[in-house]
Amino acid sequence: MTGLDRFLDSFFNLRVAVEYLPKIIDGFWLTILLAFCIILSGLAAGLALAVLRSLGIRPVNWLIIFVVDLFRALPPLVIIVLLYFGLPAAGLSISGFASAWLSLALVLMAFSEEIFWAGITAVPRGQWEAARSTGLTFAATLGHVVLPQAVRMVVPPLTNRTIAITKGTALASVVAVPEILGAAQAGVSFSFNPTPLTLGALAYVVLFFPVVILGRWIETRFAWKR
Amino acid sequence: MTFDDFLLAFFSLEIVGQAWPILWTGLQQTLLLSAIVVPLGVGGGMLLALLSTVRHRLVRWPLMVWVDFFRAVPPLVLLIFVYAGLPFAGLEVSAIGAVAIGFFLNTGAYYGEILRAGIESVPAGQMEAARSTGLTRWQTMRYVVLPQAVRNVLPDLISNTLEVVKLTSIASVVALPELLFQARQAQSVTYNATPIVAAAVVYFLLLWPVVRLLSRLENRQLAGRR
C-alpha cells in the first residue's frame, strides 16, 4: 500500500464509516439536545441574574458578582469533573449528561449575566427617567423600555459567547456521554480505525459551521453604531 | 450525611496536605503549558491577521474557510483527532505535541479573528499617511498599524488568553499531567473529592484577578461606545 492508500484506508475508510455512521448520528442529536438545554437554561438564568442585579440590593449584587466571577474563572471541564466525580462523595450521583448540562449552563449563565448587565448599564439614564416619569412602574420600564434596547445591543457578543460555550458539549465525552465525540471515540476503539473520528469532526463542522457563519453575519448586522 | 462528613469529603485539610505535592507539579505543568500555547496561538493568529490584509481572492477565501473551520471544531475534538488519529497515519505524537498542534490550530484562529478586527479598526488614513512619509508597507504595519490595532482589541486579547489558559485543562484528557489530571490522580489515591475542589480553588485564585480586570475593561469599553 502506498502512503496515500494507507492514509485513505485509515481516515476515510468507507466500510468503517458505514458501520459507525448511525452511532455518530445518534451522537449528533444528543449534542443538539444538550446544546439546547444549555442555551435555554443558561441564557434564562443569566438574564434573571442581570435583572436581579438591576434592583440594586448591595449584598445580593456582591453575591451575583462573586458567582459570575467564579464561573468565568473556572475551566468548564473542571466543573464537569467536580460534579460528576465529586458529588458521589456527598451521596449524590449525577449522570454525565446532567453534570455537563449543569456545568455549561452555569458557565453560560455567568458570561451572559455579565453581557446582559453591560447592556442594561449601557442604556442611557435618561431612558429610565423618562419612562418612570410617564408613570411606568420599575418592572414595566425594565421590561418594555430598557431590556429591549439592552438585549439588542448585546446580541453580537452574546451570540459569540453562546457558540463558544456550546462547543463545550464535546467535554461531555469525558464523563461518558455518547454525544458526537464520545460516540466517535467509542467507534475508534472498537474498529481500530480513526474513521469514526473523521466522521465526528465532520459532524461538528456540519453543526457549527453554519452557526459560526451566522455569528459573523449577526456581528455585522447588529454592529455598534458609533 | 452530617455537615462534618461533608467537610471531610470536600474540604479536608489533611487531604489537601497529602495531595499538595501532586497538585503543585500539576500547577507547574499548567503554567508551563500556558507559556507554550499562548505564544503559539498569538503567533499563529498574527500570521492569519497579516495574511488577511492581503486583498487577493485566492488568499481571502481560503483564509476565511480556515478560520471558520477551526472555530467550528471544538478544541477537544481537534486534540483527540491529533492525538488518537495521527498515529494511524504513522505519525506518533506525544501528548504535549498533540496539545501544541491542536491549540495552535484552534486558538490561532481565534487570535487571528481578534487581531484582524483590530487591524480593520485602524482608520485607512493612518496607513496612507504613514506610507506617504516614505515608510515601507512592512514598517507601516509594524510601527503604525499594529500598535494601535493591538491596543484597540486589548480586552478581547486578554479575554481570549484567559480562555486559552482555562482550556489547558482539556490536556488532562490525553493524560498530560497538568492541574486537573493531577487532581484526578490525587482523588483516586485518596478516595476523596477534596483534591478536585482544591484544584478548582487554585484555578480560581490564579484567574480571578484576570476576570476582575476584564470586567473593568469591558465596562469601560461599553461606556465609551454609547
TrEMBL record, chain A:
Cited Pfam families: BPD_transp_1
Topology versus the membrane: Multi-pass membrane protein
Name of the featured protein: Amino acid ABC transporter permease
Gene Ontology terms for molecular function: transmembrane transporter activity
Highest taxon of the lineage: Bacteria
Keywords: Amino-acid transport, Cell membrane, Membrane, Transmembrane, Transmembrane helix, Transport
GO cellular component, one term: ATP-binding cassette (ABC) transporter complex
Domain spans labelled ABC transmembrane type-1: 28-215
Membrane-spanning residues: 28-50, 62-85, 91-111, 170-192, 198-218
Primary localisation category: membrane
Family to which the UniProt record says this protein belongs: Belongs to the binding-protein-dependent transport system permease family. HisMQ subfamily.
InterPro entries hit by this protein: AA_ABC_transptr_permease_3TM, ArtM/GltK/GlnP/TcyL/YhdX-like, MetI-like, MetI-like_sf
Location of the protein in the cell: Cell inner membrane; Cell membrane
Any single GO BP term: amino acid transport
UniProtKB/TrEMBL annotation, chain B:
Family: Belongs to the binding-protein-dependent transport system permease family. HisMQ subfamily.
Cell compartments where the protein resides: Cell inner membrane; Cell membrane
Boundaries of every ABC transmembrane type-1 domain copy: 27-215
Membrane spanning stretches: 31-51, 63-84, 90-111, 189-211
GO CC list: ATP-binding cassette (ABC) transporter complex
Annotated function: Part of the binding-protein-dependent transport system for glutamine; probably responsible for the translocation of the substrate across the membrane.
Main location: membrane
Protein's name in the database: Amino acid ABC transporter permease
Keywords in alphabetical order: Amino-acid transport, Cell membrane, Membrane, Transmembrane, Transmembrane helix, Transport
GO molecular function: transmembrane transporter activity
Membrane topology designation: Multi-pass membrane protein
Highest classification ranks of the organism: Bacteria, Pseudomonadati, Pseudomonadota, Alphaproteobacteria, Acetobacterales
Gene Ontology terms describing biological process: amino acid transport
